[in-house]
Amino acid sequence: MTTPAQTVGPYFSIGLPWDDGPDVVPDGTEGAIWLRGTVYDGARDPIPDAMIETWQADPDGNYETPGFRAFGRCPTDADGTWAIRTVKPGASGDQAPHIAVSVFARGLLHRVVTRIYFADEEAANAADPVLAGLDDAARATLIAAREGDGYRFDVRLQGDDETAFFAV
Amino acid sequence: MSSHPPLDWPDYKSTRLRHPTLMRPLTLTETELTSPRLGDRPLGEHDHDLTAHGQGEPLGERIIVYGQVLEGDGRPVPETLVEIWQANACGRYRHAGDQHPAPLDPNFEGAGRCVTDKEGRYRFVTIKPGAYPWGNHPNAWRPQHIHFSVFGRALTQRLVTQMYFPGDPLFEYDPIFNSVRDEQARRRMICAFDLSSTKPDWALAYRFDIVLQGREATPFE
């Protein structure tokens, strides 16, 4: 029997955030981008006590590359927003460049998992097997739009435009 | 079979507007079958000892909490980061959002971290957290618990859970504990008192092994 998940609760900011959590790569890294977004609940209100974790391939599409943390962590602020500085992953096998996203929050009894794809990777996205399995509306929730110095990816836990989450 | 609770659990009111309604099937890829381990995170000498973070000793019952991080097949997960956070002995968190009228302890912050050894073992020294009231329903109290965050060898194994103490009278009233539907699985969240690991004249000890699901297990039914 495996150990079950439980919610992070309202007070996880005591223990989980790190000063360098949002820095998948350090300031000044060539090709660095910011991923930014807001986490919303089913009433379309921003969630101020959620946390985002990201996990990705390196720019060559390789995982668990020594020296590349590949992992980001950022709690949402009072406006429900988060930001993580990283570099764009490379394509991996037949998969388009993408970043795995785990969402934790008070009220979530287990973390939920989704993916960020990039709007400016149209050809790779068109050939991606995970995106290919989704209808247009679900697919659209995974495509991060180019914005300023990076990309925007909002997470909607519920509602008509609920983010596509995967059983992971 | 997965032991995880359902995301939609009306007895825990905060799930109402926060549970996604659909988990889509995914053929697992390298993305999900790899994981950060973070065993090289910089650690302070006392990060595992939550009683050593103040000017003096915190109040409360000093305890040792130790165990192993394991995969479902019994293989240990070595050199992986374990993070914990908790209320103080009075049931108060050092957090602006916690307005429970119980005292803060100037000598207790309530967060710790360590990295498992080659056999997947971890060990913390802390104080036993108190129960505390919350607003979920009239006269709602959380059983005493310590929050745990662990990584496995794959993203599929990422786990945040809560460790409870044996025999807590609040178990039957707690919707978060009871969101786990399987009784055996609920027992997995309860640590075991271990007299043989106590430190005489100093601290009692509790063992809490964390068993992660298989890397390729399907988490949601």
Please tell me about this protein's structure.
The complex is a heterodimer of chains A (168) and B (221). Helices cover 8% and strands 33% of the residues of chain A. Chain A has 3 helices and 10 strands; from the N terminus they run ββββββαααββββ. Chain A has helices at 122-126, 129-132, 136-140, and strands spanning 32-40, 50-56, 71-75, 81-87, 98-105, 112-118, 143-147, 150-152, 155-156, 165-166. In chain A, strands 1, 2, 3, 4, 5, 6, 7, 8 and 9 form a 9-stranded mixed sheet that branches. In chain A, a hairpin with a 2-residue loop joins β7 and β8. Chain A is globular. The model of chain A has no long low-confidence stretch (mean pLDDT 97). Chain B is mainly β. Chain B has a single domain (43-212), classed as Sandwich (Protocatechuate 3,4-Dioxygenase, subunit A). Chain B contains 2 helices and 12 strands; from the N terminus they run βαββββββββαβββ. Chain B has helices at residues 30-33, 183-188; strands spanning 23-24, 62-71, 81-86, 111-115, 121-127, 132-134, 140-142, 145-150, 159-164, 192-193, 204-207, 210-212. In chain B, strands 2, 5, 10, 11 and 12 form a 5-stranded mixed sheet that branches. The longest helix of chain B has 6 residues, at 183-188. Chain B is globular, with a radius of gyration of 18 Å. In chain B, 42% of the residues are buried. The mean pLDDT of chain B is 95. The interface between A and B is large, with 63 and 76 residues.
